[in-house]
């Protein structure tokens, strides 16, 4: 365990989790909303594990509910000079709409502001992913802009909506 919530635990991803990660990230209900357009084989997932999960430049945690892995949440693209990072997450489709994502995002946002001393957290959501937009807004994020035609998914260019959350906004919202 690394961060404990009411219904979920966020823990470091271990090598034995690679199979779960690869299976889930290749599900179209996952890869389309997160902006991927290519499948990941086991070797690519292992490379992601070794470079991103085990690297010093990201924090990627497994979301666990009742001892069952259900997704990931993390922070990446750190800029320590400006004290900001980008939030990323996904949940296995069987666990969508249960509030697990909001709880996981809320826990890592609290960690980012309270323990890492970040000033700003950013997130992007691709068009047609209204549940993810609602998740971010439930945690206190504000939509700040749109990057038009930023990814090519399912034969079409897609927009990405950028969201931001400042530490003082989060604290004044009573989220801490």
UniProtKB/TrEMBL annotation:
CDD domains, sorted: NAT_SF
GO molecular function, one term: protein N-terminal-serine acetyltransferase activity
Xref: InterPro entries: Acyl_CoA_acyltransferase, GNAT_dom, Ribosomal_N-acetyltransferase
Assigned GO CC terms: cytoplasm
Record's keyword terms, sorted: Transferase
SUPFAM superfamilies: Acyl-CoA N-acyltransferases (Nat)
Keyword Cytoplasm on entry: no
ATP-binding in keyword set: no
Domain called N-acetyltransferase: residue spans: 8-168
Membrane-spanning residues: none
Name this protein carries in UniProt: GCN5-related N-acetyltransferase
Source organism of the structure: Natrinema gari JCM 14663
Lineage: Archaea, Methanobacteriati, Methanobacteriota, Stenosarchaea group, Halobacteria
């Amino acid at each position: 365990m690394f961060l404990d919530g009411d219904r979920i635990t966020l823990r470091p991803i271990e090598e034995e989790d690679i199979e779960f990660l690869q299976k889930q990230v290749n599900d179209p209900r996952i890869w389309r909303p997160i902006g991927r357009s290519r499948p990941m084989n086991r070797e690519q997932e292992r490379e992601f594990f070794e470079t991103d999960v085990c690297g010093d430049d990201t924090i990627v945690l497994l979301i666990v509910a009742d001892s069952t892995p259900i997704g990931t949440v993390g922070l990446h693209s750190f800029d320590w000079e400006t004290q900001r990072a980008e939030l990323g997450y996904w949940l296995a489709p069987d666990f969508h709409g249960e509030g697990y994502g909001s709880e996981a995002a809320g826990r890592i946002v609290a960690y980012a502001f309270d323990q890492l001393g970040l000033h700003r957290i950013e997130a992007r959501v691709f068009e047609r992913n209204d549940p993810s937009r609602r998740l971010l807004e439930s945690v206190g994020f504000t939509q700040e802009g749109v990057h038009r035609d930023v990814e090519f998914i399912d034969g079409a260019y897609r927009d990405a909506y950028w969201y931001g959350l400042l530490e003082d906004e989060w604290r004044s919202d009573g989220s801490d």
